[in-house]
Amino acid sequence: MRVMGVDPGLTRCGLSMIETGRGRDVVALDVDVVRTAADEPLARRLMAISDTVEHWMDTHLPDVIAIERVFAHQNANTAMGTAQAGGVIALAAAKREIDVHFHTPSEVKAAVTGNGRADKAQVTEMVTRILKLQSKPTPADAADALALAICHCWRAPMIARMAAAEAMAAEQKRKYQAKLKAVR
């Protein structure tokens, strides 16, 4: 499975592509950071991110996109920009019929470090070890994008089991309601 990890942001948007093998084996295929200037109009910044992300999707052909979910931010403008960048990326994926999954920062940190409150240095160190990289990915947005992709690879089997269980429960509920309706 090929997973594109995205750490969305207007100024720096981290992109990564990893491939999972057997078990917890993951291999980094590519990593980059899209940068846009703060003095550019919002629409141009979003278009630059969109163009780059679309090129990545068309070049790397990911099976799924893992995007960091905007959870809470002290700065509302930063949170809004992050959400807008994430939305542009989710739209590009939807146009290509690529599944999108959102993961919170604490889910990602817990997946790669075992601690949902790990700092950026710990995340970067573990990403470097897990992927057996020669050097630490920089800036932190690149490491975060790799961590998102790793998180999704490791959580994907559980996500699939949960979706199957939810589908089964919905089917059972539908059958039960049909049975009740027939009795009335």
From TrEMBL:
Protein location: Cytoplasm
Transmembrane region(s): none
Cofactor: how bound: Binds 2 Mg(2+) ion per subunit.
Entry binding sites for Mg(2+) 2: 68
Record has Flavoprotein as a keyword: no
Keywords recorded for this protein, A-Z: Cytoplasm, DNA damage, DNA recombination, DNA repair, DNA-binding, Endonuclease, Hydrolase, Magnesium, Metal-binding, Nuclease
Reaction equation(s) it catalyzes: Endonucleolytic cleavage at a junction such as a reciprocal single-stranded crossover between two homologous DNA duplexes (Holliday junction)
Active site (record annotation): 7, 68, 141
Superkingdom of this protein's organism: Bacteria
Similarity comment: Belongs to the RuvC family.
Protein name (Swiss-Prot/TrEMBL): Crossover junction endodeoxyribonuclease RuvC
Organism: Mycolicibacterium arabiense
Gene name as annotated: ruvC
